[in-house]
């Protein structure tokens, strides 16, 4: 799957240079940045797919950076105390995930609640960025994780394409005006079709009957972060990923789908 994504990324770059004269300089730069960022993302997840520890380190980094960005939604300063807390919490969390010890995770969350009981948003931030996003790492089948992560990202792409071509009816005009009913439905159909084809022709173990639900829940995660951004007048959660924004802008679809994917794996 990662090889397929790499091929698609290279083809996208080639096509971009072929249509260079038909789009504005601003759009050309943005798309080029997105494509190069995807190269980096693919390389990072390739390394993560080689060893479970590498995958945990990668998600630990994602959780830590996501926590920093999430604090913006409550105008909370990412001070030294929270930097240290974030490091310790995520280190303990992913050690618990590695050991598959539910009690470590439970005790850790109790300690978080006791430490920040007067600052409930911080507890909420840790729950979202570590416990929800990181829950997918409880799966020890790295290929399973990678395949579903790619499918979630493809759903975002398919929704974007479908919305741009067919989009007319806005689904969340006050939160994310570019989201349309046609984009959502098109994304669900194309992602489910892709999963079906890959299951039959590439022998990838997708539970196709759950794919529409994953697409819908991924959309809800996207809208959830968009609503928080609109509340504090942010376009992006950060600028770390050129052309994409922040870490949360890229993993928002994973917030609520990660626990669902874990559940599918356990079935």
Radius of gyration, CA atoms, in whole angstroms: 19 Å
Q: Into which percent range does the helicity of residues fall?
A: over 70%
Shape: globular
Query: What is the chain-wise order of helices and strands?
Result: HHHHHHHHHHH
Q: List low-confidence stretches.
A: none
Number of DSSP E strands:
0
Alpha-beta content class: mainly alpha
Number of helices: 11
**Total number of domains:** 3
What is the CA-CA span between the terminal residues? 23 Å
What does the main sheet amount to?
none
Question: Beta fraction of the residues?
Answer: under 5%
Mean pLDDT over the residues: 90
The gist of it:
The protein has 267 residues and is mainly α. It has 3 domains: 1-50; 52-138, no CATH class; 141-266, no CATH class.
3D structure, described in words:
The protein folds into 3 domains: about 50 residues; about 90 residues, no CATH class; about 130 residues, no CATH class. It is globular and about 55 Å long. The model has no long low-confidence stretch (mean pLDDT about 90). It contains 11 helices and no strands. Helix 3 runs antiparallel to helix 6, helix 5 runs antiparallel to helix 6 and helix 8 crosses helix 9. By secondary structure, it is an all-alpha fold. Pfam families: CTP_transf_1. Its EC number is 2.7.7.41. This is Phosphatidate cytidylyltransferase. It comes from Fusobacterium vincentii. Keywords: Membrane, Nucleotidyltransferase, Transferase, Transmembrane, Transmembrane helix.
């Amino acid at each position: 799957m990662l090889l397929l994504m790499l091929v698609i990324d290279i083809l996208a770059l080639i096509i971009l240079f072929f249509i260079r004269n038909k789009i504005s300089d601003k759009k050309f730069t943005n798309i080029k940045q997105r494509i190069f960022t995807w190269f980096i993302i693919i390389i990072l997840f390739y390394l993560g797919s080689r060893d479970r520890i590498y995958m945990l380190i990668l998600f630990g980094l994602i959780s830590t950076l996501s926590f920093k960005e999430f604090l913006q939604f409550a105008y909370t300063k990412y001070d030294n105390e929270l930097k240290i807390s974030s490091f310790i919490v995520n280190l303990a969390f992913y050690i618990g995930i590695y050991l598959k010890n539910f009690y470590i995770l439970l005790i850790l969350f109790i300690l978080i609640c006791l430490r920040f009981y007067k600052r409930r948003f911080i507890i909420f931030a840790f729950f979202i960025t570590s416990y929800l996003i990181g829950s997918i790492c409880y799966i020890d089948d790295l290929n399973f994780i990678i395949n579903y992560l790619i499918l979630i990202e493809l759903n975002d792409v398919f929704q974007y394409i479908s919305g741009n071509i067919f989009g007319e009816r806005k689904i969340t005009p006050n939160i994310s005006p570019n989201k349309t009913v046609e984009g959502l439905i098109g994304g669900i159909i194309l992602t489910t079709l892709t999963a079906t084809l890959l299951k039959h022709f590439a022998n990838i173990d997708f539970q196709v009957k759950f794919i529409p639900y994953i697409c819908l829940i991924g959309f809800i995660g996207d809208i959830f972060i968009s609503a928080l951004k609109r509340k504090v007048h942010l376009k992006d959660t950060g600028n770390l990923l050129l052309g994409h924004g922040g870490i949360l802008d890229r993993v928002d679809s994973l917030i609520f789908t990660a626990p669902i994917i874990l559940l599918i794996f356990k079935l």
